[in-house]
TrEMBL record:
This is Carboxyl protease. Belongs to the peptidase S41A family. Keywords: Hydrolase, Protease, Serine protease. GO terms for biological process: proteolysis; signal transduction. The keyword Hydrolase applies. Residues 73-144 form the PDZ domain.
Amino acid sequence: MAISAGIWIGATFAEPKSNQNDLRAALYKLQEIMTYINRDYVDSVNTNELVEFGITKMLENLDPHSSYIPARDASLAQSQLDGEFDGIGVEFGIIRDTIYVVAPLTGGPSEALGIQSGDQIIKVDEKTVAGIGVTNRDVFDLLRGPKGSTVKVDIKRKNQKELISYDITRDKIPQYSINASYMVNDEVGYIKVTRFAATTYDEFKSSIEDLKSKGMKKLIVDLQSNPGGYMGAAINMADELLGQRALIVSQEGKVDQYNQKAFAYRPGIFEEGPVIVLINEGSASASEILSGAIQDNDRGLIVGRRSFGKGLVQLPIDLSDGAELRLTIARYYTPSGRSIQKPYGANHEDYEMDYIKRFEHGEFFSADSISFNDSLKYNTVKGRTVYGGGGIMPDYFVPLDTTMNSAYISRLFNSDSNREFVLDYANKNKDKFEDMTIEEYKDKFTVNDAMLMELVEVGKKNNVKFDQVDFNKSKDYLRILVKAHLARQLYDDSAFYMVVNDINEIYQQALKLFDQAEQIAMAKDLTDVDLQEEEE
């Protein structure tokens, strides 16, 4: 059966054995109260909204990850994991209250009709959508729809006075969860996984096969800031890296049917050769399943910072009105028996603020700030000590580098000024890049001072006040960020990561650690091995 990251797929719901009289009494009380409110309350109320509010608050009293998704949001939430959706096929942004086409998606209906990067969507089905405070959710509602349905879109294009009208027939649009796959050098392959969706395993397998055909002998799997998704995808991906019968993950719940263990059972396509997995504080759920399986089976090296700490499994339950309940039905455990779930209590705000607490405590900057409870000590297959109690602690800790960033750069990017500048620059300089390969771009193209000052001017238009001190501090950092985002606009996501990884401290450190990764994979016994952090 397939399990999903918080979501367990393929089960027939079995009602737990409980005191049915108490349940009936509780339901009767709720119905009684709602009847009085509907009939006698002094003001008119929307009883459906009131019930939905009550459901949300009720689930918050259980755990941080049980949730209720209203019918109006359920299909959109599901599409994030399905690997495809029905729509017109554009990546969009909202800049100065106007919908901009960042890029038409390859193979989609918008690309086929000739819609271009930088086009502004002014009307949808004769309704003006510019300058009215449109939101991302509004754009989804307007442009997504059943395959085969048609939507009329009026577009403003630079250097053309009149709006251009397109009748776009919606189609299936694939969403990719492997955002980058490339060879770092002659031996090292790199795969960036941004979420675990329905298609992620197939994408992962294809990426490995492609990289192996190019000579890959060492692999980096980047799970930084990957929030999770389908557990089944993580299990299948681990199976491609682990030997047969290696335990990948187990889960335990109150109901027996939710108790399972997943083992590697197929010959994997990369069971030999050193593996390094990159994680950070944003790596959660299915990301922790995969990294925990690699770590506990001593298959490779985990590099980065302690992961988020989500070890609860949710079952998706479709409700009669189209809404969805995601109910926690089990906890999952890594092969050594660790629960990765970080502690939580009744105050979920504290749980959500854990990131800030870690930052203030100094955990992002020093591994010594993290203390482990000896009662949560476990051993890997080859005898290394690992700890449960909240997230995956990497084998090699890499501190967060904040020296290059600044508040001004953050404001600049949060205002979408960078996106606006990149779109405009790419459109104005198409001829310059037409015959330039990504390798040539990475090695030879430089974001010069004139480009940075143009970006500063765009920022001023978006009410981002210029800060000379922050600008000087972060100038080199800003060059890389602009170059990376321009690479994505000109080429693809792989190009973005090829450039931006030059300032990714976890990635850069990982490239130096393949000897240690190989040592872990090849050793028969690691009880006396101490992995040393290299001095800079």
